[in-house]
Design a protein that fits this description.
The chain is α+β, with helices and mostly antiparallel strands and 283 residues long. It folds into two domains: 127 residues, Diaminopimelate Epimerase, Chain A, domain 1, CATH 3.10.310; 139 residues, Diaminopimelate Epimerase, Chain A, domain 1. The chain has a 19-stranded mixed sheet that branches.
């Protein structure tokens, strides 16, 4: 199986051209290739496939083999691969995902994609659609915040719940570096309030135009970046009155510009996409 390693600000995946390659067991392959000691290494596997409704189709699998609906950093890399390798030359490019068909504006330099702006569609805020079990949470300190009991009920956290194609819980904190992500991340991910688990993010507001965040990603653990999560943080910041609608989001792997536009209610994400190397997997 031929593959290409790519990343969006450190959120790295193994990409396979599904037009030329067939992956019979993508969940199993994802678990093997994502292993950073015995595989290629990455946050998961992304297949770039033909589509009858868009330029290409994306399927993404987390490091544990579970399939996700969307990946914000991943979709930028899908567009770069499709354009740079001649699968599609549309600009804007349309990519079919589990979130639906999304439109991506490509910034080209030297004949290759350098930056991508993704129209991430409207955020989903209804608890049942995210999904969040309403009976397992209570109202938090602010509007749009809900309180979770974690660690055998001895710890309470207030979170904003948003779906940007996949479910997110956003916790605002005064010092994101102090969060014990390895401990609290998996507890929140698998909390009984989330029937499909959740991506958990801790965000520190620097100003009304900038935040710093860290992520525990559903099915992959700690990652250097999460594009859909950065979008969820922006929405949560606006809903709770903490930030403006356009923010610069600082993630461990780099920066993303996120805007929740009032004009159409859609969230837009802008960031780079990078191809690292290609190879052949025999595992």
């Amino acid at each position: 199986m031929k593959f290409t390693k790519m990343h969006g600000i450190g959120n790295d995946y193994v990409y396979v051209n599904g037009v030329a390659e067939t992956v019979a067991d993508p969940a199993g392959v994802a678990r093997k290739v994502a292993d950073r000691h015995f595989g290629v290494g990455g946050d998961g596997l992304i297949l770039i496939l033909p589509s009858d409704k868009a330029d290409v189709r994306m399927r993404m699998f987390n490091a544990d083999g579970s399939e996700g609906e969307m990946c914000g950093n991943g979709i930028r890399c899908v567009a770069k691969y499709a354009y740079d390798h001649g699968l599609a030359k549309s600009n804007p490019m349309r990519v079919e995902t589990g979130r639906g068909v999304l439109s991506l504006d490509l910034k080209i330099g030297g004949g290759k994609v350098e930056q991508v702006t993704v129209m991430m569609a409207e955020p989903i805020l209804e608890l049942e659609k995210i999904p969040v079990d309403r009976d397992k949470v209570v109202k938090g300190a602010r509007e749009h915040e809900y309180r979770l009991s974690v660690s055998q009920g001895n710890e309470l956290i207030d979170a904003v719940f948003v779906s940007t194609g996949n479910p997110h819980a956003v916790v605002f904190t005064p010092d994101v570096a102090a969060v014990e992500l390895e401990r609290i991340g998996p507890v929140v991910e698998r909390h009984k309030a989330f029937p499909r688990r959740v991506n958990a993010h801790w965000a520190q507001v620097i100003s009304r135009d900038a935040v710093r965040m860290r992520t525990w990603e559903r099915g992959s653990g700690i990652t250097l970046a999460c594009g859909t999560g950065a979008c969820a943080v922006c929405v949560a910041g606006v809903l709770t009155g903490r930030t403006n609608r356009r923010i610069l989001t600082h993630l461990p792997g780099g920066d993303l510009t996120i805007e929740w536009r009032e004009s159409d209610n859609n969230v837009y994400m802008t960031g780079p996409a990078t191809e690292v190397f290609s190879g052949e997997w025999n595992g």
